[in-house]
Q: What sequence folds into this?
């Protein structure tokens, strides 16, 4: 059995990761900012840890990671937030989690980023989108520079369609979308594949079963 700490557990991808961990017989601990969210985490089959990522110290977060075999970072400021919160959550909370994982002795770290995060933006990109892409890009760079056993997943446009179990996974894919359910399933497959360590992959719906896609990309 594996115990996984999920940062951003109350988000739509985070909830699906926790539920799939439970279904597969693993343990999940979900990091959330209030007690109401914690009740949702328990209903999904996980343990809840209450912590405000924009206020917590690395030591406080490391305490929540104690006993985990892996950390999954899927936090984000979310729709409607401004440029400042993209920086404090999408970037700042990632850097905090990287440091906390090191303090807690948790080496395995999977980060959910964004498709095309390294691509240059057009001159007409608005301030918030520019801040979001910069935060994801810089968070990925910080993780790559760490000594953790990391994998970065960059999904395309996220949908709430039922998962198909079929994806395309590669360092570079065509632009596309993917159900959140399939992103969560890919996280579990990546955690089960040690050869995925050190890889940055884009992720969209495609023709290949998830476990096969991870195994092929990890070669």
A:
């Amino acid at each position: 059995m594996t115990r996984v700490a999920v940062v951003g557990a109350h988000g739509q991808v985070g909830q699906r990761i926790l539920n799939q961990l439970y279904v597969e017989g693993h343990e999940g601990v979900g990091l959330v900012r209030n007690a109401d969210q914690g009740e949702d985490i328990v209903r999904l089959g996980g343990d809840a840890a209450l912590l405000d990522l924009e206020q917590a110290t690395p030591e406080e977060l490391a305490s929540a990671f104690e006993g985990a075999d892996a950390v999954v970072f899927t936090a984000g400021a979310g729709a409607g937030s401004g440029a400042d919160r993209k920086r404090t959550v999408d970037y700042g909370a990632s850097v905090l989690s990287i440091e906390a994982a090191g303090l807690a002795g948790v080496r395995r770290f999977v980060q959910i980023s964004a498709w095309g995060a390294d691509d240059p933006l057009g001159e007409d990109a608005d301030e918030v989108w520019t801040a979001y892409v910069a935060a994801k890009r810089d968070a990925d760079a910080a993780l790559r520079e760490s000594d953790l056993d990391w994998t970065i997943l960059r999904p395309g446009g996220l949908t709430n369609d039922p998962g198909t179990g079929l994806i395309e996974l590669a360092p570079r894919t065509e632009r596309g979308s993917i159900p959140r359910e399939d992103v969560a399933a890919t996280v579990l497959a990546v955690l089960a594949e040690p050869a995925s360590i050190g890889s940055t992959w884009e992720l969209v719906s495609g023709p290949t079963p998830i476990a096969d896609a991870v195994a092929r990309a990890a070669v």
